Amino acid sequence: MKTRVLKINDVESDCSAILEAARLIQAGEVVAFPTETVYGLGANALDAAAVQKIFEAKGRPSDNPLIVHISKRQDVDRLIKELPSSAITLMERFWPGPLTMIFKKSPLIPDAVTAGLDTVAIRMPRHPVALRLIECSGVPIAAPSANRSGHTSPTMAQHVLDDLDGRIPLILDGGRCDVGLESTVLDMTAEVPTILRPGGITYEMLMQVLGEVRVDDGALKPVKKQQVKSPGMKYTHYAPHAQVVVVRGEPHQMVARINVMAEEYAKQGMKVGILATQETKAYYKEGQVLVLGSRKQPATMASNLFWVLRRFDELGVDIVLAEWIETKDEGLAIMNRILRAAAFRVIEA
């Protein structure tokens, strides 16, 4: 299979490319497309055979549920059994945008989408290309991130091509994703709305609207459950090709410990990458130092994370030493991704 890439500069002037992608969706094929979070690999969410092609292209385990993407608020009604008033409030505040909510599913949703669970995760993306593609397809689109399973999520069309070239027919290139991390997943079937996967809609934002929100223990710890309701919980995710190790402590302690570790690894002949911040970059003496951004701007650091991890792949490093980021605001989502990329390898400084 030859994978084509069609550039979308404007949804109106480049509508023929979106229509071509929509025809593929209608024909039961998969298409990669941009959202504001990361690139998604989409198929008709109501067609189990089409959804299966997502798992095959990604090499994704079938017990890892998918998110269903819609283009209009009323599309939710036929896909779920019940819509809580609190969810309506959240939709009015955060949709379209990087918030996924979990509800009890209707019989329309195939088990292939939900990994056999009786719940379904739904969101309305903010990206104009994604919205137009869903609208033109005339069906909700099930889509995980458009990368090989376990690898760093793609925030550019080239990242998708690097992972899935020859495995999918088409990529819509809508430029770099601005949020840069997958959506927040909020379980609305829990007694208290519970964040299963943190993202760009933060705990603090949700608390302002709902007044009471929980963060699942699995956000920063390995999950031991057999079944999970959200993607990004059960397996090692987001990893570059190099081994990742997280170093936790006060900034000066982290810098000192990372410098020692980097020197030791370099003596062993290993190429070292260091995932640093604007405040610490000048203090590192060894290795390829890449900067996420300033600790004062966690949204910017979140936007850069996957791009930086893929840059380490390009540089061919053998090990990445990553600083711990304070888990406030978008910092919670950043550490959720880094810890999973590191398979929870953490060293105290």
* Euclidean distance between termini CA atoms: 49 Å
Question: CATH H level of the largest domain: which superfamily?
Answer: DHBP synthase
Strand content: 15-25%
What are the segments in which pLDDT stays under 50 over at least 5 consecutive residues?
none
Mean pLDDT: 95
- The multimeric state of the shown protein is single chain
Please state how the strands of the largest beta sheet are arranged side by side. 2-3-7-4-6-5-9-10-11
Number of folding domains? 2
Profile the largest sheet. Answer: 9 strands, mixed
Helical content class: 25-40%
Per CATH, what is the topology of the largest domain?
DHBP synthase
Tally of helical runs: 10
Q: What structural class do you assign from the helix and strand content?
A: alpha/beta
**What gyration radius follows from the Cα positions, in whole Å?**
20 Å
Broad shape: globular
Total strands: 16
CATH class of the largest domain reads: Alpha Beta
Q: At CATH's second level, what is the architecture of the largest domain?
A: Alpha-Beta Complex
